[in-house]
Amino acid sequence: MFPDFLPKLTENLTESTSISFAENIQYKSISTPLISQSINTTFLSKGKGGTPILLLHGFDSSIFEYRRLLPLLATQNKTWAVDLLGFGFTDRLPNLKINPGAIATHLYYSWKSLIDKPVILVGASMGGAAAIDFTLTYPEVVKKLVLIDSAGMQSNPIISKFIFPPLDYFATEFLRRPQVRENISRAAYFDKSFASSDANICARLHLEMPRWNKALISFTKSGGYGNFKDKLPSLKQQTLILWGENDKILGTGDAAKLEGAIANSQLIWIPNCGHVPHLEKAEVTANYILDFIREN
């Protein structure tokens, strides 16, 4: 039985991993200084013991990104995935602007309510930029940092220059098209067999949520996450950088730049893998993260 806040499209999932993940998604009303109304925030947690792991998804995505990785990490550590403000299945409240500052604030109060102890923070793609920003803002919350094919070393996305009325509506409606989502999904993988019909549904589910397009427009107009190059030297946390050798979304050049900018960091390349190692090479990714957690 799926939670009733998930869209009807969830019933079309076919892979057991995706179905089990959907069945266990929960939400909690999170109070923040951002707005007087509590924000229903979706998350999934599994496992027990160890330093908790907190997973952050990428741009225009959801916690379904971690349907393969989270159960593997949860064999050793209590593991959480949370839908960021403005994304996934977390409430998109009217009159609440979506920008990096609001995302970090919401994430802090979500962490405070759900976990309330230092975490291993894991971010993939835009979630990596969100993780960097959160670690710089709340360093006491993050024990170690893991970045997977992470954003944060490039200028603001070019689409931000074109998201204005009426093009904002048409841009998001273009992104909503199933064929467009499928093409994006295929580009993210080295092994195209991972771009299954089930994977495409997982990547589209959150598009069915109320005010999806308005929140995406709001975030893009804010400029999103820019270049953290000048701030990265102040990161003190031990950092693991995982990168697919065949990333066609962000390329591979930023991997070494991140390693060079973060003093206490290590870069590991994942062969025969595209932009999403946590989906395409879940077991390899999990093993690297768990070994990293065990290191003194």
Description:
The protein has helices at 16-23, 69-73, 100-114, 126-137, 167-176, 178-188, 197-204, 212-221, 253-261, 277-280, 282-294, and strands at 26-32, 35-46, 53-56, 79-82, 119-124, 142-148, 238-244, 265-270. With 296 residues, the protein is an alpha/beta fold. It has one domain (8-294): Alpha/Beta hydrolase fold, catalytic domain (Rossmann fold). Helix 5 crosses helix 8 (212-221) and helix 6 (178-188) packs across helix 7. The termini are far apart.
Short description:
Helices cover 35% and strands 18% of the residues. By secondary structure, the chain is α/β, with parallel strands linked by helices. An eight-stranded mixed β-sheet has the order 1-2-4-3-5-6-7-8, with helices on both faces.
Short descriptors:
alpha/beta, eight-stranded mixed sheet, 8 strands, globular, Rossmann fold, 11 helices, 296 residues
Indicate the topology.
Layout: H1 16-23, E1 26-32, E2 35-46, E3 53-56, H2 69-73, E4 79-82, H3 100-114, E5 119-124, H4 126-137, E6 142-148, H5 167-176, H6 178-188, H7 197-204, H8 212-221, E7 238-244, H9 253-261, E8 265-270, H10 277-280, H11 282-294
Parallel strand pairs: 3-4, 3-5, 5-6, 6-7, 7-8
Antiparallel strand pairs: 1-2, 2-4
